[in-house]
Design brief:
- By secondary structure, the protein is an alpha+beta fold.
- Among the domains are: about 150 residues, Adenine-n6-DNA-methyltransferase TaqI, Chain A, domain 2 (Alpha-Beta Complex), CATH 3.90.220; about 140 residues, DNA methylase specificity domains (Adenine-n6-DNA-methyltransferase TaqI, Chain A, domain 2, Alpha-Beta Complex).
- About 40% of the residues lie in helices and about 20% in strands.
- It is built from 13 helices and 25 strands.
- The strands form 9 sheets. A 4-stranded antiparallel β-sheet has the order 2-8-5-6. Strands 15-23-19-21 form a 4-stranded antiparallel β-sheet.
- β9 and β10 form a beta hairpin.
- α5 crosses α9, α5 runs antiparallel to α12 and α5 runs parallel beside α13.
- The two termini are about 30 Å apart.
């Protein structure tokens, strides 16, 4: 390790390490707009902010909560419930405040680059240590004292800048892929809505127009009129069917049935936390012989039907290796391979509906979507020929998204490995730059 690198603590290189307060404890309340107020769910696993998850407080409340007023380049570190999510505050979200579940680390920029410290705090090795030192009550908690005392190895500023150059190159590629996936998902959703919700091609043909942006072969698969059904007016030849009839839904097994172990023997047990963050150091494993129906494979569609209505009720495609499925998650098996894209896109389109269904049955912060709900919820199903075409067209988009997600995982692992090796002195900058160049060409 370079002699210029020093062993220090988070507290020693920070001007402030503190946390916020819930406004309601001081007589204030949340409101429709105002100063941004951040909770844990507003921070993603990869360090971005979800603006839709921001809450708002008044300027008076913001001034009252002076201790936790955020500044540009503050680092946020979640210390309650979900431990170890980090984010770097930029001026785009200011003014802003936060609560007691998030620690605020204000770096001393004379000794550490804020972005570098954020990388260190988000490194899996640091997060695992934090998670191992949590206190369990109603939820996991990591104390400010532990965070201040946490040891890190700090290079000088020029070396930090070089390391940031390497890690930034990787993160730029990850960011580009995420933006690409957002665009691809929007395209898939737009086409699904146009064809199967708004029935745009059918309406165009009824008016004697060629469906916009559609070749004649595709247009021929759409009827040119509606017909009355027991479920209302639908394109002729199409039907309405319960969402539950589109696929086989296999609920995961009870957690205890897996006899989970912390020695990482067997396969990982996938709970909602793993759907969001992947397999981590906190994931339990099982080597118990379980029925094959509980084994999930790469590319399986998974639907989490229980949890926080706003953050947990969602549809995922499993991008990791085989694993065991815990309860509260459905493994979704479409009735035929040709219907996969339609089933996946239907579930994603209905997420706002699922959220409201879960919220209406919410207790102690949790809600759920029941089988009865899915049997009552009717969806429009087109002809088999159109399902085949949609699967070919949108299935290709889904596959591109899937491959991008796998590449993101590879790059994120590479970034974390580089950070650990650079900080430990196992990897020098010239070699790191060469490895990044090789990865970029792959």
């Amino acid at each position: 390790m370079s002699s210029e690198w020093t062993q220090t603590s988070v507290g020693e290189i920070s001007l402030l390490v503190t946390k916020g307060t819930t406004p309601t404890t001081l007589g204030h309340s949340f409101q429709e707009n105002g100063v941004n107020f951040l909770k844990v769910e507003a921070i993603t696993e990869d360090g971005h902010f979800i603006r839709d998850k921001f809450m708002f407080i008044s300027e008076d409340a913001h001034q009252t909560l002076s201790r936790s007023q955020l500044r540009q380049n503050d680092i946020l570190f979640t210390i309650a419930g979900t431990i170890g999510r980090t984010a770097l505050v930029d001026d785009q979200i200011l003014p802003a405040n936060t609560n007691q579940a998030i620690a605020i680390v204000r770096p001393d920029i004379s000794v550490v680059r804020p972005r570098f410290l954020r990388y260190v705090l988000s490194n899996p090795s640091f997060t695992r240590k934090a998670q191992s030192r949590t206190v369990q009550s109603v939820q996991s908690n990591f104390s400010l004292g532990e965070l201040k005392q946490a040891q890190i190895t700090l290079p000088d500023l020029p070396e930090q800048d070089q390391i940031l150059k390497v890690l930034g190159t990787i993160d730029d590629r990850i960011s580009l892929m995420r933006k690409t996936n957002i665009t691809l998902e929007a395209i898939a959703l737009s086409l699904f809505k146009s064809w199967f919700v708004d029935f745009d091609p059918v309406r165009a043909k009824m008016e004697g127009r060629a469906p916009e942006g559609m070749d004649e072969t595709t247009a021929a698969l759409f009827p040119d009129e509606f017909e009355s059904t027991g479920s209302g007016m639908l394109p002729k030849g199409w039907s309405a069917c319960p969402l539950y009839d589109l696929a086989t839904y296999i609920n995961g097994a009870a957690y205890k049935a897996f006899e989970p172990n912390a020695d990482r023997r067997g396969l990982p047990i996938i709970k909602i936390a793993e759907l969001k963050a992947g397999v981590t150091g906190q994931t339990a494993f099982s080597d118990v012989a379980m029925p094959e129906k509980y084994r999930i494979q790469t590319r399986d569609i998974l639907f989490s039907w229980s949890g926080n209505p706003d953050t947990s009720i969602d549809t995922f495609v499993w991008v990791y290796d085989p694993a065991w499925l815990n309860q509260h998650i459905f493994r979704v098996i479409p009735n035929s391979p040709s219907e996969r894209a339609f089933v996946l896109q239907t579930l994603r389109f209905l997420r706002p509906v699922f959220t409201e269904l879960a919220r209406n049955k919410q207790t102690t912060g949790l809600g759920h979507v029941t089988v009865s709900d899915m049997k009552r919820l009717l969806v429009t199903k087109p002809t088999a020929a159109l399902l085949n075409l949609f699967n070919a067209k949108i299935g290709n988009i889904h596959e591109r998204i899937f491959k991008n997600e796998q590449q993101i995982l590879t790059l994120a692992a590479l970034r974390d490995t580089f950070l650990s090796r650079l900080i430990s002195g196992q990897l020098r900058m010239p070699a790191a730059l060469a490895e990044v160049g090789t990865a970029h060409d792959a």
